[in-house]
Specification:
This protein is about 25% helix and about 45% strand. It is an alpha+beta fold. Strand 9 and strand 10 form a beta hairpin. Keywords: Membrane, Transmembrane, Transmembrane helix.
Length: about 150
């Protein structure tokens, strides 16, 4: 009976130690650990957005995650006409214009913090090429696709 109790206690302590170790690895507070990673530079694509919104995005803007934490600084913005068709209704008729008024915006940004794992954390998401996520500026928000991610010093 005593051996069962002792084995149970040892297993519980072992599992708790593993969980604590994983927590410390995945959530470092030590500045030395945080300084080991590199910054990242990511390119985001926002497709078929309104021209007014595209004009709001400027070089030097700060990008925020969904919790309001500052994550990126915009280093380049490229606005191009969208290839999307402009579809609208007028007097119960559907019209499709090939000349779109909408814009595609390519946003290149550098992270403010260094990554400390294999991917850069962004709210509850990770910045990985191909991912879709919400990108927030001072007075705009966009649903974007992450095109490229590269390490920079």
């Amino acid at each position: 009976m005593y051996k069962k109790f002792l084995v149970s206690i040892v297993l519980v302590i072992f599992v708790l130690a593993i969980l604590l170790g994983l927590y410390k690895i995945l959530n470092p507070k030590n500045k030395e650990i945080l300084a080991q990673g590199n910054y990242i530079e990511a390119t985001f694509l926002a497709e078929a957005i309104r021209p007014e919104t595209a004009e709001m995005i400027k070089v030097g803007d700060t990008l925020y995650d969904s919790q309001g934490k500052k994550c990126f600084k915009v280093t380049d913005v490229k606005v191009v006409p969208s290839e999307a068709k402009y579809v609208y209704y007028d007097q119960n008729l559907l019209y499709v214009e090939n000349t779109s008024k909408l814009k595609d915006v390519y946003i290149t940004a550098k992270s403010l913090d260094k990554k400390y794992a294999w991917a850069y954390p962004y709210g509850k998401d990770l910045i990985m090429a191909g991912a879709h996520l919400a990108l927030y500026g001072e007075n705009w928000k966009l649903w974007v696709t992450v095109l490229t991610v590269k390490d920079v010093k």
